[in-house]
Amino acid sequence: MADRTIWSNWEPIVLETTSLTTVLDALINNHSAPSTLIVCSTKDEFISALSDAVALDSLPSQRRGTSANPIDIDMTDADDSTNEDARRQKVAEHPLLQPTLHMLTSISDLKLAFCPSTPHTLAYLSLLSVKAADTTRATAISVPILAILNPIAQHEGTHSWSAQGLSKFLAAAVSTAHALGAKLVVAECKAGIRPVLPDEDDLWAQVDAEKGLRREEPSLWDEEVAITNVKAKGAANRDLGWKGRMVKLRTVAEKWCRFVRLPED
Question: Which of 37, 94, 144, 167 is found 20 to 30 A from 229 (Cα to Cα)?
Fold first, then answer.
């Protein structure tokens, strides 16, 4: 569990938290003026992802019975209709959807920017660096944030999908944050939770699928990429024929940032 002191220093961090709602809540509640949130997608994609995240976060976690503590399926069935109505109401009233962009843009000391591609993201970081001379640097009491949402996933399938390309991006992000006198916060929220899919060979998986339960996805940071850039687009992206040296994304990021896990609801 992360404590609040992580927001009071300039150490670059990666939020090892896949819930988009948890990340946004943390940024909104802990930022200081002037802070910036760079979303590595279009505005429409962000709104769609947030709506999905709120709906998925409202699902119950995957349950497993044991011989000592079995699950009473009949009892859980009895609560389904009541729980579903409550879940729908919870989603509809979620503060991050009331409406999202109006809420975020109305926060005067948190600037929101959408960058639909890697070149756009890098160009915006460069623009921030150029304007850094006009930015008031933070004091020891107030630390603004430069948050970047889903930059690693944005690189996937491009010529920069390698340790070399991602390290170059992280170096640019760290440099920009330093120029702004801000704390760099990187978050990847595209994995996270997903509905459990039915499995004919797994009775419990079938039950969970019917209940609409959720299952944790593997962390994006544990995926491997090639050390250097490759000529063929996406050649190192899950290509079974790739024989070059590989490294985990986590290892690349740890050269620049510390990983921090936030508590998720």
Answer: 37
